[in-house]
Each structure stands twice: as C-alpha cells, then as structure tokens.
Amino acid sequence: MSRLIPVRETILAAAILVLLLLISSRFAGFIAPSNLANVFNDTAPLIILALGQMVVILTRCIDLSVAANLALTGMVVAMINVAMPGLPIPVILAVAVLLGAVMGAVNGILVWKLSIPPIVVTLGTMTIFRGIIFLISDGKWVNSHEMSPAFTAFPRMELLGLPVLSWAAIITIILFGIMMARTQFGRSIFAVGGNPHAAVYTGIDVGRTQFWAFVVSGALAGLTGYLWVSRFAVAYVDIAGGFELEVVAACVIGGISIAGGIGSVGGAVLGAIFLGVVKNALPVVNISPFWQLAISGSAILIAVAFNSRSGRTKGRIILKSAEATQ
Amino acid sequence: MTTRIAPAPAPDVSPIVSMDMITKTFPGVKALDQVKLDLFPGQVTALVGENGAGKSTTVKILTGIYQPNGGTIRIDGDPVVLATPDDASQAGITAIHQETVLFDELSVAENIYIGHAPRTRLGLIDKARMHQDASALLTEIGAPFSSHTQLRDLGIANKHLVAIARALSVDARVVIMDEPTAALSHKEIEELYELVETLKSQGKAILFISHKFDEIFRIADRYTVFRDGAFVADGQISDIAENDLVKMMVGRSVEQIFPQTNHEIGEEVLKVVGYAHPTEFADINFTLNKGEILGFYGLVGAGRSEFMQALFGITKPSKGVCRINGNIEVIRSPADAVANGIVYVPEDRGKQGAIIGLPIFQNITLPSLDKTSRKGFLKLAEEFKLAREYSQRLDLRAASLDQDVGNLSGGNQQKVVIAKWLATQPQVIILDEPTKGIDIGSKAAVHEFMAELAAQGLSVIMVSSEIPEVIGMSDRVIVMRDGRIAAEVEGDDMTPETLVRHAAGITTPTEGAAA
Amino acid sequence: MTTAPQTRHVPDRLNSRAARIFKSWEALLLAVAIAIFVINSFASPYFLSAWNLSDATFNFTEKAMIAFAMALLIISGEIDLSVASIIALASTAMGLALQYGAGTPELVIIGLTVGVLCGAFNGFFVTVLGLPSIVVTIGTMSLFRGISFIILGDDAFRGYPASFSWFGQGYIYWVFTVEMLLFVIIAVIYGVLLHKTNFGRAVYAIGNNPTGAMFSGIRVARVKFILFLLTGLMSGVAAVCLTSRLGSTRPSIATGMELEVVTMVVLGGVNILGGSGTIPGVVIAAFVMGLVTFGLGLLNVPGIVMSIFIGLLLIGVIALPRLWAMAAARRTP
C-alpha cells in the first residue's frame, strides 16, 4: 500500500522542477514550452540509451559498450548512405537497429555462454568496436555534404509539432513502460536482478534473460547511432566518446540500483532529463559549460547516497510489536 | 506425539510420480544411487534422511533443476524427461523451497504468477485478472494481506503463504515441501498443517521433507528413507515406530546421550549489564563463569542471535557495558571482541563463518595472524603449524590443509570455523545453533567437544532452539522472549515445560509491549 | 555413538610448488608475452634495439604503477574508475602551484597529496557511507576531472621547471629510465604487501567473503579505506610522472586510462569479482600490453587499432580457457 506513489521518482521529479524554477528565475525563457521541447529533443538520445542501460543494469550487468556501438552503427549507416544514397530511410533504420542488436548479442553471448563478467566483456567490446570504426573508415570523417538530404532530414522531420528524434524517445518510453510492466520478459528482468537464485527455481533462465537485455540495449544503441549521425550530420571515430558514462549516470541518478533488481522506466527517464536540463541550462545562466562534468559527477554521488539511505531495510521492530509472537 | 489426523489411505492407488533407479553424480560424488520414490494422490509422503542423504538433490531433480544421470521418472506411468523447471511445472510438479525463492521487488500477485501470468489477447500480462485470481487464492489459504502488497513488506511467515499460493496457482498435482516449517512459529505451523490437509483432500500428492519427527508422525501417511544417497525403505507411517525410523535413517540406533558435564565452574569471566538495542533487544543482564556452559533458549526471532552479534561487536548496542575479568571493556567491532577473548561461531557457516575461496590453513590462522607473523610479515611455516595443531584437535577430515575450505562438507567447515577461534585461545566462545543442519553423528561429536572445552576452563555460550540439547548441555539456561530475558533457570528447574512456557510467555503476564 | 577421537594426518599441501606455478595463469601469460616478443622481433628489425625497447616502457610504466594498487583494490572486491581523473586533478593542482612559484619538491608533494585526498574521498563514500564503489567512482571520475575543467577550461599549464622533467624523462643509467626504476620499486613493494604480509592476507579474505572476514575480526572498512588511499597515492605518482613527461597539464590528460589500467589488472589474472590475483601476473600483463602496443607501433598500426588487440586480448584470455574447458567437458560425457 505504501508504494502507490513511487518515492524516488517523485523526489527526482520535484528536484527537476525546483531546478527549472531556479533557472527560470535567472532566465524566464528557459521554461517556455518551445525551449523545453528543445531540451527534451536534445536529451532524447540519452533517454533512449538510458532505458536500454536500465534493462541491463536491472539484470545485474552493465553495458559500457553502448557509446562505441552507437558510433560504429552510425559510421556504418553513414557509409551505406554514401554508397547507396537512394536507400530508403526505413531500410537504414532497420540496418541500424539490427546491427546494434548484433553487437549487443555479442556482449550477451559472452556473458551468457562463457560467464565472463559483464564489465570485462563490455570494456573489451567497447575498445574493439571503436577500433573497427577506424578500420572501416580509415580514420576519415563522413561529412554532411556526403550524406543524402533524406538521411539527415529524418530526425528533424516534425510530426504533430515535435521532431522525429523526440518521437523516437517518446515511443521508446511507451514501449518500455509496457514491456517492463506487462510482459513476461519485463517481469523476468526484475526477477533475475532481484533474486537470481529464485529466478532459476521459477523456471527463468538467468543467462538468457541477461542475453536479451544486452540485445535490447544494443538495438537501442544502434537506433541512436543513426539518429545521432544524421542529427549532427557527421560520423567519425570518436563521436559520443565517453557517453556510456553519462548513460550510466542517468540510470544511477534515476535510482536504478547497480546491484540489480530495483529501478523503473520513470526513474531512468527522469535521470536522463535531469542531466539534459543541467547541460542545457548552464550556458543560459552564464555558467561555463566546463562545469557540467563536475555537476553531473556530484549529482551521481548525491543520488547514490540518497537512494541507499531511503532504500535501507528497516530493522525488525520486535520490541515494539506486541503481535510478533503470541 | 503421534496423533494422526487422516486415516491411512487405500493402498491400491497407483502413484502420480514415481522415480525409479534414479542416479545422480557430481564430480567425485555420487549424490543419488539408484533410488526410488513414489508419490501417491491424496497422500503425504515424508522423505526422511540425514544431511547428505540426497533429499535436496531429489527435490532438484523433480523440479527440473538437475538432470539425473540414470533411471526413469514416470508420471501416471509414462516416462518423462524434466529438462527444465518449466517442464516440471508443466508436468504439474511444484515446490515450496526451504529458503523463500521469491522476489522482494515484485508484488504478491506477480510473485504468485511469475512465469504463468494470465495474458490478454495482445499477449500482455492481464493485470486485472492476475490480481483477481491471486486474491481468490490468498483468501482460500487465509492470507491476511492484499495481492497488491510489495513482497518485501511481508514477514517471513507471510512470504511462506505467498509461496504456497504460488504452488496452488499452477494447479499442481504434486506439491513438494522442503522443510516448510523451519522458520515458522507454532501457530503458523498449525495453519500450515491445515493447508496440507486441504491439499490432500484435493487429491494432490505431497512430498514432505522435514527433520522434525513429531511433524512427520503427525501429518505424513507414508515414509521413504534415504541414507548416503541410497534408498533404504518405504512404507506406511502407521506401520512404523519412531525409533525404527531413526535407526533406518542413521544405519544404527542412536539415543540422544549428552556427555557428562563434570567440569568445574570457576569465577566470573563476563558480566553483561543493561545491554539494549533500539529495535532488537533490551535489558540484557547476566554473568558467565569460567568453565560454564550457558544455554540461550527462545523462539526464532526472540533476539538471541541479535544480542550475541552485539556482544561480538557486529552491531552496536545503544546502551550497556560488559565487564570482562572485572574490567569494563568497550566492544565496538569483532576485532575488539577477539582482543578481549570473546569469539563467535555464527549460525550461517557459508556466509559468516568460513571464508570460501581461501585454503583451510588460511581460514584457521586468519584471526591469529598477529601470532604467526613477524612485524606484519607472514610466516607460512608458523601458520601451517598452528593450523595442523587445531585441525588435528578437531579431527578435521580434509585432503590437505591447502585445500579450499569450500570443498569441505558442512560439518568439516564448522570444524574449521571452531578451529579458527580456538587458535586465538579465547576465554568465551559463543556457539550460535552449533548443531543446526548437521547429522546426528556429528552432533554428538560437537556436544562432546563442547563439554571438553568447558572442562578445560573455557566459558561457552550456546544459542540453541533444540530443547534436549539446551537441557542436556547447559549448566544454566537463559530464556529470551521478544528481545528480553524472560527467565534464568538452572538445575532441576531446567525442564522442557519451563523453557517452553517462558519462551512463549505463558506463566508470566506479558510486560514486554513497551519499548 | 561419536566418532572416536583418533587424530588423522592431513597433509599441508598436495601439489608441489613447481606444479602449481606451471599450471598458473601467470605461466600462460608469460608464454603469451614471450610469443609476442618473438613475433615482434621477427616482424620488425627495429624491435630489438635497446633504446627502442626502453622507449616502449613508457607505454605501460605509469599505468602499471596504478595497476598494482588497483589489483589490491579489485582483489578486495572494490574498484576505482576515477584514477585517470585523479591524475587530471593532481596534475592541475601541480600546474596551479606552479603559477604560484612552487619548485619541484613542492610540486611532487602537492601531486601526491591531491592523489591521497582523492583516494580518501572515494574511500569515505565507499567505506563510511557503504556505497558501491563502481557507482561512487563513476561519480568522482566526472567530479575530479570536472574540477580540472572548471580550473583550466580550454587552457593548459606549461613551463614546468627543468628539474621536474627528471621523473618522466630522466635516465638512471644507459637505457634505464627513472620511470622503470619506480615501476620496479613499486612492483616489489606491492608484491610483498599483497603476498607476504598480514595486510595482504586480509585483502584476500575480504575479497572472498567480506562478511566472513568481518566476523573473523578483520577491520574490513579500514583495510578498504587504506586500499583507496593507496590507489589515490599511486594515481598521484603517475600524475607526477605523466606531467613531467608531457611537460604540460590539460584537463583531458590521461583520458580513458582507467580502462587500460583495469584491462591490465584483469589481463594479469585478477578476478574482477574479487578474491584472487597476483602482482607477478599484473607485471607480466603490463609487459604484454606494452609489447603489443610497441610492436604494432613499429609496424605503423595506429593506436586506435591497437586497442582492438587489447580488447580481444582482454576477452580472449578469459574466454579461451573457458571454451577449452567446455569443449573438454563435451568430449568426456
């Protein structure tokens, strides 16, 4: 009964609101709907990746290869576009998602079948994926003038007043909301992370669930890869360098427990939005963008300290309860 | 003791499940050797055996977690392969495990239906129906909470009810109960028996695994005995006496004989004054003398282990002091306790006792490294010497002292933990449920050893929930109830009736409600 | 009905020392290192030059210094992902001090002190507040480097005194550099600390079972806190060496080095989940990584491509033995 209102998410949402109010006291335009829509659009890739990362972290794993996956997929679709400018966007999208999923599957299979710790696997594949970008591109950039107009226009296309990029995030949020709450896979993810031992007894294959979590995370990284290179109209080896940590940060701030089993779609989204608001607000309130890194670092520390306090298990109050043993 | 509720069922029914010539080997160990087990509809079959007899392996084979290396499992006479836990539940076999294998972060309904939730036409989980069905089940078993409750907000007994509801939800024909009463109070056990009767009347076959003989004779219809992974006998409970069952179980006749406690009790070693903790215990006062065995009895949850852990410095008491050899000492950490000669053999050997992953000798010398080293630098020869001395003293069975302690049996791990502490030459040794989960033979060895320690002048505190053990071993018994000392009894006052009355709060009016 | 109190002889050890060493991870790794060395010396005529090999050691000495402390930390079941950011902050602090006229001794002291303070900061969150180290150090990774960015922005500190360059550019004798000497000294110190002292034993005990270690009277929090201090200190030492070698400080200094350090430690056979690993293993892993990087460099393979090899090595050395074991298990049913 006590859990009808998710406490963590409410507090985080309140913190974001307070932040927005503070910013608006310095610069009222920031909370204008059009600007907020821009902030959301700017944060969309982080939201999508954070949701994928959430699934992985819930199963007691971590995926440090998402940014490298994003960059490699981005490079591949950009090169495909250069080679075959006529290829329709849905095909490009399908290629991106599929390629990302394959890379996720590589991580997943190593974790599942060889039981190599996820942090080792994804550290390794992270450097390998980045290296492969260099190999296939020869270290060269793919610039906007080489890309077809349709390729770069897609994420900017507006539907009902919002760009496709924003819609991609919104659809991902909705799909994840349904997946986590209403599908067997979603519940298995919580079960595997919350109590892997019990999951086995319940007939849930822990390794297989982790595998699929990596595939989901990879597929979203692939999707974001296309959206990223087309939005910025450039692809090169180092795009989204270090972004994997920002993704993990969004999850941590969103209250997803690194120990697995605890977290929510709302939390991951709010965590990403928090970082997005900070990033977009700094230039507006005349703080050097160089502050951003330190602020997100502090936010992680505060969030994790706070979540562990609120999540601490209450002692059995045997002294106070008269009904304990009758 | 042996009042039975239901009459013996007709013998001419055929079994739902029968295991025939089942063998299961692990590297180097034959866990099951051509065993047979039959489970009949509407009957409770008790699987009896010591630890290591192969009971949990049997459960894991029946639930599809392990695959047998040989033999056949038949359901309604047809051979089946239970390759996964899913296969087992498809075949109508479900288990309520010893540890609650549930998920704290999910709701009660989700816990009941995980893996087989009702679906909508779109293939999504039908939450409304799931909660409706779950509520119906919960009502049926008389559970006092809603299907929306988060599991982590429930106590252990209620979690058990969820596990039972889950077992019922799959519409199982075979229900396995693996030590279901281990963590339950008296009243909850009674309720469980009623549930078992309900399941029986629905024609389900029940496999009941328990160490408690009164329980077996109360609710089982049939018995099957395993010993050392092999089948020994089966039959109707009504045809066998308790003693004969024990004999079959251990392969010899065992009487609970406790060693003569002819040790001398000396001067006061430890005095605990006014120990209190915000939530777990309050007003703990007692003294412990040299060469004395002091028993701590109480129901599960009375706060005994919690107090012992505070005495050992794991948790911090909010109030109270302890006097050791007449000096007031502050114990803030286990390191302080060890320095003051107080050591603690925990109940949870695997997690808190042995350091699995380290070799035996390193486990034994861990708290004594200051003695075996020079200026902080290790001296392996000294370590082996110390480890050899104490492993011999405890009659440790192992391939070598360099072997990982994780490869030892539970009883031998316990010996390593005790050896570790004796090597520090303590004054007070606290043994928390020292014989829980070890077989009858090892139990007697532990009792013998405890008496020997006391005779050598060590003071022993023994936390135990087994009344014969408490009475047989202790010089004096402290009974705890609801986090407080309910009584202190010694001599002829140490009778089962007194202990149970004090533990349950029957004689004295309950005054422990205030905090 | 009790077991007769007969004393049984339990031998101290079953396998001889030689047999255990032969079958160890370190032996496998050493074979890999020798193979790489041989292949490289055939692949490039420049490989076997003493000066080239000496230059090659810069590839790994700084990382290895941190890796030794990190190995202990990982064995104890924790991790520090902020080491590269500690280097950035320590280097920035040294650069700042330089602006106020600090000389070489002061610079070194400041670098080391900042390293230790950062370690203490991490250690406080992990051992006092009881938070998971991976999250804490992902946070401080951003925070420490973030502070460097706040101080420096796009700028750089330059103009370190000539005497300061001794640490990262000096030679002791012939081709032997100051960094090599530091590497050897630190390797020996950490080897002794981990394998020959009570402290090292406590580290293993904690890594295998922190609760059990606590119940055995080990001051778990104190040991872990010291390990964070040591990792911070070593990051400070690496900051001094790296700053001295580069002769400048930018906030982006040593970016990504934490991952190479962790890779080195894992490659060295340290279990990322804690409980096992050795310093000799890390030493050999440092050489393996150095030799691969150097050998490929001589063949004009770009750095980013080398990272593919490092990544493959990291996964391969763990995956291959497991694949073999699985294949062997399949052959003998």
TrEMBL record, chain A:
One of its GO terms (molecular function) is transmembrane transporter activity. Signal peptide: none annotated. GO terms for cellular component: plasma membrane. Coiled coil: none annotated. The keyword Transmembrane applies. It comes from Pseudooctadecabacter jejudonensis. Keywords: Cell membrane, Membrane, Transmembrane, Transmembrane helix. It is found in: Cell membrane. Its main location: membrane. The chain crosses the membrane at residues 44-59, 90-112, 119-137, 157-178, 210-229, 250-278, 290-308. InterPro entries: ABC_transp_permease. This is D-allose transport system permease protein AlsC. It is a multi-pass membrane protein. It comes from the Bacteria.
TrEMBL record, chain B:
Its main location: membrane. Gene3D superfamilies: P-loop containing nucleotide triphosphate hydrolases. This is Ribose import ATP-binding protein RbsA. It is found in: Cell membrane. PANTHER family: CARBOHYDRATE TRANSPORT ATP-BINDING PROTEIN MG119-RELATED, D-ALLOSE IMPORT ATP-BINDING PROTEIN ALSA-RELATED. Keywords: ATP-binding, Cell membrane, Hydrolase, Membrane, Nucleotide-binding, Repeat, Sugar transport, Translocase, Transport. It is an enzyme of class 3 (hydrolase). It comes from the Bacteria. GO terms for molecular function: ATP binding; ATP hydrolysis activity. One of its GO terms (cellular component) is plasma membrane. The keyword Cell membrane applies. The keyword RNA-binding does not apply. Residues 17-253, 264-507 form the ABC transporter domain. InterPro entries: AAA+_ATPase, ABC_carbohydrate_import_ATPase, ABC_transporter-like_ATP-bd, ABC_transporter-like_CS, P-loop_NTPase. Its EC number is 3.6.3.17. Pfam families: ABC_tran. It is a peripheral membrane protein.
Automatic annotation (TrEMBL), chain C:
Keywords: Cell inner membrane, Cell membrane, Membrane, Transmembrane, Transmembrane helix, Transport. Part of the ABC transporter complex LsrABCD involved in autoinducer 2 (AI-2) import. Probably responsible for the translocation of the substrate across the membrane. Pfam families: BPD_transp_2 (PF02653). The complex is composed of two ATP-binding proteins (LsrA), two transmembrane proteins (LsrC and LsrD) and a solute-binding protein (LsrB). It comes from Pseudooctadecabacter jejudonensis. One of its GO terms (cellular component) is plasma membrane. Signal peptide: none annotated. The chain crosses the membrane at residues 27-48, 60-76, 107-126, 133-151, 171-193, 225-247, 304-325. InterPro entries: ABC_transp_permease. GO terms for molecular function: transmembrane transporter activity. This is Autoinducer 2 import system permease protein LsrD. The keyword Transmembrane applies. It comes from the Bacteria. It is found in: Cell membrane. Its main location: membrane. It is a multi-pass membrane protein.
